[in-house]
Amino acid sequence: MIFLNAPIMQDKIIEFVNGYTENGLTFKLKSQKGMKLVFETNAEDLEAAAKLVKNAIHAQSWGAVLYFQAGVEK
Amino acid sequence: MQGLMNWLGKSLVPIASKIGSIPWLVALRDGFISTMPITMAGSLATLINALLVTFPTEWKWMGFVNSGFVQGVVAIDGIVSTGSLSIFAVFFAAMWGYHLAKNYNVDGLSGSLVSLAALLMSTNNTTTLALADKLPKAAVKAFTNAGATASESSITLNSAFSVGNLGSSALFSAMIFGAIAVVVYIFLMKKDITIKMPDTVPPAVSKAFTALIPGIAALYVVAIINWAFTKGTGQFFGDWLSETIQAPLLHAGQSAGMVLLVALLVQVFWFFGIHGPNVLAPVLESIWGTSQLANITAFEKHAALPYKWVRGSFDAYAWFGGSGGTIVLLLAILIFSKRADEQAVAKLAFAPGIFNINEPVMFGLPIVLNAIYFAPFIIAPVLNTAIAYFVTMAGWVGPVKVAVPWITPPVLNAFMATLDWRAAVLALVNMVIAFFIWVPFVQMSNRVAAKEQAAA
């Protein structure tokens, strides 16, 4: 699982990440508490998956200015 | 406090996130960011020269300064600087056009070329040498015959771009004419007013032909504007923009109001999870980034520095350990906090904090959206900015004149950027002040946690 600490635009982030597929990777929202969003994923390299999602969000026109944290949920 | 936070969150954040997604402003920001290797190379050359020549000359180490090694390094630095910072507007124009075209899904490389050509069209392409001694009539005639415009007191070389006209003073020309040219180019590309080649033609050739009509039209529009302006005023448009628009705007950037407003907005944006410097990059870089380039160029030429507060001043005096001056918060936690969770975060976040990376503390503590830390997170950097601003304006520390990578540790950053030991002291004093601003809030956070624990 990976997590995103995102204080704003959570709905947009959830919608984007839930529908995001890259190289066969999939993500699904598992839990949402405060600014923490946890996603289940079929990725084996979770660090790389978290980075991938972060970069993908930043590449969106609405996501370029967002300041959030992405990491591996332990 | 919660009411203020809610109000800011509802009113300011949507505006910031809208601004941050405007393709024009994103392109402007990315245009500046893309030129970082150029800025850093030029700055490094300036820094090396300062360390090898400026300081040793002050200490009268003339044998060292005049040694073959030092003179060789100085010569190499001169080449680096002339090909980078001195003609910064050229690189910016190319990057600005590239990102603008790309953000509108049009070929970025063509956009880059069109923007670059637009800058050169609007730049004064004559170089005038003012002569201290009277030129003999025969020499005037010889220069005139060779194609120059000569008189007894000056020689003007035609079709000769001066390096000085392509530096930071040409940035607004690059922005405005690059924008005009690329907009025409994008418009015609989107309208599909292009030459279409058969599928058998190689893609590179086909791409070049597709860009032909939009590219020519874009450059002719810029050329006509420049021709009409020069015809009407007798002045190059670029010179006029530099004197009438750019210079006053950069001087406005020296006002306390503008400096403090930006320092405040950056903090507010960070607090709500918006990358403050990213959103404000078009302003930060256009005004204070340009001022910094002017300072670096002036320093390299041993001229007086034109601006006191520039882009690097924020990093040197207010954003130590990352925006919010969070390195001192970590210290305050390590010394005063009894909370195990805060202690753990502070220990983990301290090493990255030395290099001004504060994501672990911003989200780990957290600071973002944390009502307890809202006040110090806003107040400390704004107060630090105010102190540094007035000290710098009073001339008690030298202005920033070297671009330093943002990951340079606090205090060292201030020294390297200004080459003035007093700047390092100022950064240290600011850190102490920020520390005492953070301490009561760390203690408050402890009390709140203790109360919550007791209630549970």
From TrEMBL, chain A:
It comes from the Bacteria. This is Uncharacterized protein. The lineage of its organism: Bacteria, Bacillati, Bacillota, Bacilli, Lactobacillales.
UniProtKB/TrEMBL annotation, chain B:
The keyword Cell membrane applies. It is found in: Cell membrane. It is a multi-pass membrane protein. The chain crosses the membrane at residues 32-53, 74-98, 166-188, 209-229, 249-272, 316-337, 357-379, 386-407, 419-441. This is Permease IIC component. NCBIfam families: lacE (TIGR00410). It holds the Pfam family PTS_EIIC. The phosphoenolpyruvate-dependent sugar phosphotransferase system (PTS), a major carbohydrate active -transport system, catalyzes the phosphorylation of incoming sugar substrates concomitant with their translocation across the cell membrane. Residues 8-441 form the PTS EIIC type-3 domain. InterPro entries: PTS_EIIC, PTS_EIIC_3, PTS_IIC_cello, PTS_Sugar-EIIC/EIIB. It comes from the Bacteria. Keywords: Cell membrane, Membrane, Sugar transport, Transmembrane, Transmembrane helix, Transport.
